[in-house]
Amino acid sequence: LKFSKMDEVAREELLKLDAEKKEKSMELQRLNSELQSRGFKLGDSYVDDNDYPRSDIDIPVVLNIVRRIRCLQTELTELNDKISEGLNDIHRKFMTRCNSETNVFAIVDEVLPNSTGEVMGLKKYDKLLRIGELKVEDFESCDKIIELLRNAHNLKIVIERDDQLLDLYFTGTAAEVDNDLGLTLQLVKCSPETTPMESP
């Protein structure tokens, strides 16, 4: 059994970018302070009123600091763009998934210990959205779930738990599938031919 890592990986990548942004922002602040301590600010002139190089500053050192500041400003702009793009991508994928998989056809009432349901990774109050290719419109009975589990390898199960969509993967063998799954399901949405029922 394993959870889908797509959202988690994207989140970790954004956290790394944010940490890098904070680090560069701190360096930028430090360099600006150092520049000011040397009697220079961004935008100041390197020459005096007579157009001679200023004698009150160490021009080579100041130039190096200014170059680094400019580089950091560019890098921070790029990081902000990447973070914004990453957040938008996660939001877009989430909304697309929500729009396509929000039909809940059953809620888990009970999961027996050491049962197929437990192996599937299901917990009480989980909402079932999809099991393999099985969705609300073609769900007829729990026998269909048992058949899918016994015949499919690495079967994807889409659930909603604590207001989050999760992917579970059943990697067991046919021999590990109980006849009743060890589950009690409360059907909340059915196809026209189906009446509400519970699994055995």
Automatic annotation (TrEMBL):
GO biological process terms, semicolon-separated: proteasome regulatory particle assembly
Residue ranges of every copy of the Nas2 N-terminal domain listed in the record: 15-91
Classification via InterPro entries: Nas2_N, PDZ_sf, PSMD9
Gene3D superfamilies: 2.30.42.10, 6.10.140.1710
Keyword field contains Transmembrane: no
Domain of life: Eukaryota
Keyword set, alphabetical order: Chaperone, Coiled coil, Proteasome
CC terms in the record's Gene Ontology section: cytoplasm; nucleus; proteasome complex
The keyword Cytoplasm appears for this protein: no
Coiled-coil annotated spans: 62-89
Pfam families: Nas2_N
Record protein name field: 26S proteasome non-ATPase regulatory subunit 9
Lineage: Eukaryota, Metazoa, Ecdysozoa, Nematoda, Enoplea
Gene: PSMD9
